[in-house]
Amino acid sequence: MPFPDELRRIYKKQGYHFVGRYGLVKQCHWLKKSLRSGGKEYCYKQRFYGVPSHRCLQVSLFPGCSQRCLYCWRVMPDDLGISWNEMGAKDLDEPESLLDGMIEEQRKMLIGFKGRRDIDPRLLEEAMNPVHFTPSLVGEPLLYGAERLSRLFSYAFKRNFKSVFLVSNGTFPEVLSRLDTEPTQLYISVSAPNEEIYKRVCRPLLPDGWRRLNRSLELLSSFKCPTVLRLTMVKGYNMTDAEGYARLIKKADSTYVEVKAAMSLGFFLRRLPREAMPRHEHIRSFAEKLADLTGYNIIDEYLHSRVVLLSKLEKPIKLY
Q1: Rounded CA gap, 173 and 58, in Å?
Q2: Are strands 185-189 and 163-168 parallel, antiparallel or unpaired?
Q3: CA 39, CA 46: separation in Å to the nearest integer?
Q4: pLDDT at 8 over 80
Q5: CA count, 13 A, side-chain hemisphere, 98
Q6: Residue 1: pLDDT above 70?
Q7: For the segment 13-42, what is each residue's pLDDT rounded down to a tens digit?
Q8: Residue 71 above 70 pLDDT?
Q9: Which residues are CB-contacts of 202 (< 8 A; sequence separation ≥ 6)?
Q10: Is the pLDDT of residue 130 over 70?
Q11: pLDDT higher than 90, residue 90
Q12: 18: left (phi over 0), alpha (psi -120 to 50) or beta
């Protein structure tokens, strides 16, 4: 089923650029901020892992998803009363041509910064050659398939990307288990401490989504790369039952746990009140509870992104 015209129109209105049939590119808020500040302002990925914000390529391989999370900033078919099978696309773009096209589209988007007095030309030249790649803009990247993802990661490394982050909602463990090429860092989103809250907040399209998520957590120990559980917190909805989250953290035994506030952006505000975005002190307090319950330690935090990092390591592994 083709991508609905109304969804395409809204994505373009929100600043997304299409590449190929389904690919999307959008410059991150922090990429622009890093350029404008001479590299002095950046996102938590730079703070924690050394990833340079101005050299990040943030994309979507296919905007479909197996969940319709209340807190997601993207527009969903349900938001517009559109019927579309988000997991039914068969004619997906080929990895190599898709990545090439995305890099070129990012460069076109950056052209507008050239010649501006507030932009360091050296940083802009670096931004034209991204070194960090993350297919986590919108949608579930595992819908792209294990074979295509493996080819994509291999090609990214051949094109001199130094890091590739894969961020998944964990509902396709069978795809995770078949990856031939690992990313530099693997994230699994955990947005509920139990199945009841999972169904209410994540609104899975798959009836066994909770079982699938738990299976993905069990698979994390088989990966050689660092692994991360990202706990996206929504005040009044899933910021409860710390013991339940602790059980999932212990099951996954991930390298890191990121406790992060859901941000009141885009279509989040169509489904939730602005007050559902927690303040940083709420995130810190919840992270402290998790540290007490799991044996993980708080090793860093970043107020601007409302995120706290936990690990059994003394400090995060810098990738750059």
Answers
A1: 23
A2: parallel
A3: 10
A4: yes
A5: 27
A6: no
A7: 989 999 999 999 999 999 999 999 999 999
A8: yes
A9: 67, 68, 69, 70, 169, 191, 192, 209
A10: yes
A11: no
A12: beta
Report whether pLDDT(3) > 90. no
Q: Which of 307, 300, 288, 302 is nearest to 245 (CA)?
A: 288
Has residue 49 got a pLDDT over 70? yes
Phi and psi at 201, nearest 5°, equal -95, -40
Distance from C-alpha of 317 to C-alpha of 137, rounded to nearest angstrom: 23
3-class SS of residue 258: strand
* Residue that has been written with the tokens 């030249």 in this structure: 125
Tell me what pLDDT residue 288 has.
98
DSSP secondary structure string for all residues of 33-88:
HHHHTTTSS--HHHHHH---GGGEEEEES----SB--TT--S--HHHHT----TT-
In which region does residue 80 sit, left (phi positive, over 0), alpha (psi from -120 to 50) or beta (all else)?
alpha
Q: CATH 3.20.20.70: does it fit domain 5-311?
A: yes
Domain spans, the chain: 5-311
- Beta-ladder partners of 25: 17, 59
Q: What distance in Å separates the CA atoms of residue 2 and residue 20, rounded to the nearest whole number?
A: 13
Main-chain phi, psi angles of 284, to 5 degrees = -60, -45
Nearest to 218 by CA among 253, 178, 193: 253
Q: Is the pLDDT score of 89 beyond 90?
A: no
What pLDDT, on the 0 to 100 scale, is given for residue 2? 75
Q: Is residue 45 packed enough to be buried (19+ CB in 10 Å), middle (13-18) or exposed (0-12)?
A: buried
Backbone torsions φ then ψ of 79, nearest 5 degrees: -65, -30
pLDDT tens, 136-169? 899 999 999 999 999 999 999 999 999 999 999 9
**At 161, which amino acid appears?**
F
Cα angle value 313/309/204 (rounded, 5°): 120
Give dist(CA 287, CA 311) in Å, integer. 11
